[in-house]
Recover the amino acids of this structure.
């Protein structure tokens, strides 16, 4: 079942003519000519679509929070600042099929009563920004953007805004600050963007994939979307698959397939690269807890884990994780968990905006202490020190970057403590190039 | 300082960018215009940032604090080609560390340095959202994916011509 990527490999799909020949922009016509904004919101609510950027908050509900005071402009801002390590699905979608996003932007903007909308794209993707701007111009030329769209009286201008290289701007209030030409420091909430967002006007910020899905929902109805998936995990999800698999790439899956199928079937990752065994997976982008091979494939109850919000988090953080952004990083037995955790800790240290002390100082501590362990200079008490620092960051910051920094470190120690200990007790061996600890008796060990 | 002025066609573009935002919200154009400035002058010197401030009728400090916050803006001179490699987890899993070591050896410089001929600067950056196609680096707008030592050599040879 493909909703967003059905036509992604059609040659020329990035052009509006080919896109329209393949059914593109039908949702704009249907939405603007035959539906009211409230009816669209109702369908999105029925669909059960949840925010695809990572938080998983229901999109229709977020839309319904939008304040609508008379005479005040409202804005839709698309979050295309995709920066969570392991995640490259929005990059792929915008690069291959820019009109899929633009169609969703028009439909969603109409539903929200926005007459100006922005797509905030991470600045590194300047070539994607150029693709989007070309596609937007095509849409203007066809009368799908601009004044009086399709003769309906509805006006919409759509602009692309480049970021400047800052992970924090994927946090929605930091993104709005950045769009206002400032440093990306997250705002205190409340007020939420739905009440005071861009330039203090009511604003909805949604992820690329969420917005793109709204066209299909308009065309086919919320019930049809909700019929895909399992329970509260409805519809399809783009999964960015990277690491030690045969076929890295972006896959659109119906939510609810098993993790095992996703990793091993030829339709998706194709299994672990030749001659190697699965050791660990980070299932939803670098910030979600890493799990060992056993825990990612099977829940505590002995059931096969599913690719859903609920199943991946079953067992809490003790044995579970999160679907997050769908950044699925697969590691085989050659992976040093300490080194991988160091790259994540370094990432969050670099990306902390510096506004809240627990995150600004704590991410630096974790980076330094893990580096000490990785380079053979660790002390046994460093492990508990890391756990302690992570605990003191978690929940004590304005935005979720603090949690995102704390979780991967805490989880790596929770599930691979023996590997950290080995680095400390065997510094000479551990610092040899390519050296990796083999847990006795583990399914991935030799 | 007086020679820091955008060419006429870029000034037209600046006007168009400012028009994307409501009246009085021209500060929103800061990041797009800093990108244009860096494309023009390679790096954001204080003269360049002061010029951007005058274009947007904001104070210079508002430009400095933004330019220094975002990784993409170079606050010191850089070489003709700035190679920005991704050092984050997924690229390292795909052999990034070895490839980047090769790159540094090949150019004879460390991260953050520029070759003596001013041709290349190496910078390390965080995740470039291309994890399934790693290891990855970026030179200006172009992504170079699935890097190997041999591929790095080819790219450097090509850019050295």
């Amino acid at each position: 079942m493909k909703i967003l990527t059905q036509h992604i490999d059609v040659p020329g799909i990035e052009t509006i003519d080919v896109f329209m020949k393949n059914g593109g922009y039908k949702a704009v016509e249907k939405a603007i000519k035959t539906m009211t904004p409230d009816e669209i919101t109702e369908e999105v609510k029925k669909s059960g679509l949840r925010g695809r950027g990572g938080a998983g908050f229901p999109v229709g509900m977020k839309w319904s929070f939008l304040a609508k005071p008379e005479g005040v402009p409202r804005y839709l801002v698309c979050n295309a600042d995709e920066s969570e390590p392991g995640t490259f699905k929005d990059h792929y979608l915008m690069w291959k099929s820019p009109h899929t996003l633009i169609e969703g932007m028009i439909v969603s903007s109409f539903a929200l009563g926005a007459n100006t909308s922005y797509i905030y794209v991470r600045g590194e993707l300047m070539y994607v920004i150029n693709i989007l701007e070309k596609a937007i111009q095509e849409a203007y030329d066809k009368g799908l953007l601009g004044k009086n769209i399709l003769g309906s009286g509805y006006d919409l201008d759509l602009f692309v805004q480049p970021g400047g290289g800052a992970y924090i701007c994927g946090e929605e209030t930091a993104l709005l600050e950045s769009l206002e030409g400032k440093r990306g420091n997250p705002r205190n909430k409340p007020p939420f963007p739905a009440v005071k967002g861009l330039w203090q006007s009511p604003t909805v910020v949604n992820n690329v994939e969420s917005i793109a899905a709204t066209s299909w929902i308009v065309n086919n109805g919320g019930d049809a979307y909700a019929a895909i998936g399992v329970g509260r995990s409805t519809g399809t999800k783009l999964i960015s698959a990277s690491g030690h698999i045969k076929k890295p790439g972006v896959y659109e899956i119906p939510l609810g397939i098993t993790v095992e199928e996703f990793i091993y079937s030829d339709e998706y990752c194709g299994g672990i690269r030749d001659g190697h065994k699965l050791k660990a997976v980070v299932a939803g982008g670098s910030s979600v807890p890493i799990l060992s091979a056993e825990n990612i494939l099977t829940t505590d109850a002995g059931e096969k884990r599913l690719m859903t919000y609920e199943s991946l988090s079953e067992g809490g953080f003790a044995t579970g994780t999160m679907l997050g952004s769908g950044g699925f990083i697969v590691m085989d037995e050659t992976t040093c968990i300490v080194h991988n955790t160091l790259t994540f800790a370094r990432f969050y240290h670099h990306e902390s905006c510096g506004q809240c002390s627990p995150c600004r100082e704590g991410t630096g501590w974790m980076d330094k202490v893990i580096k000490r362990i990785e380079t053979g200079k660790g002390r046994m008490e460093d492990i508990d020190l890391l756990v302690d620092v992570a605990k003191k960051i978690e929940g004590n910051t304005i935005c979720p970057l603090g949690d995102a920094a704390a979780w991967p470190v805490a989880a790596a120690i929770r599930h691979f403590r023996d590997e950290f200990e080995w680095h400390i007790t065997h510094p000479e061996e551990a610092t040899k190039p390519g050296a990796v600890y083999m847990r006795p008796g583990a399914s991935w060990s030799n | 300082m007086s020679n820091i002025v955008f060419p006429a066609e870029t000034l037209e573009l600046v006007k168009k960018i400012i028009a994307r935002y409501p009246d009085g919200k021209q500060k929103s154009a800061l990041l797009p215009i800093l990108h244009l400035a860096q494309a023009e002058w390679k790096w954001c010197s204080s003269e360049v940032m002061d010029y951007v401030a005058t274009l947007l009728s904001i104070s210079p400090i508002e430009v400095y604090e933004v330019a220094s916050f975002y990784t993409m803006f170079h606050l010191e001179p850089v070489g003709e080609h700035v190679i920005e490699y991704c050092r984050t987890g997924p690229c390292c899993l795909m052999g990034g560390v070895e490839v980047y070591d090769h790159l540094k050896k090949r150019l004879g410089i460390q991260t953050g340095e520029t070759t003596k001929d001013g041709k290349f600067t190496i910078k390390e950056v965080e995740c470039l959202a291309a994890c399934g196609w790693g290891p990855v680096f970026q030179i200006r707008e172009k992504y170079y994916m699935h890097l190997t030592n041999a591929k790095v050599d080819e790219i450097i040879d090509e850019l050295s011509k």
In short: DSSP finds 19 helices and eleven strands in chain A. The mean pLDDT of chain A is 97. Chain A touches chain B through 58 residues (CB under 8 Å).
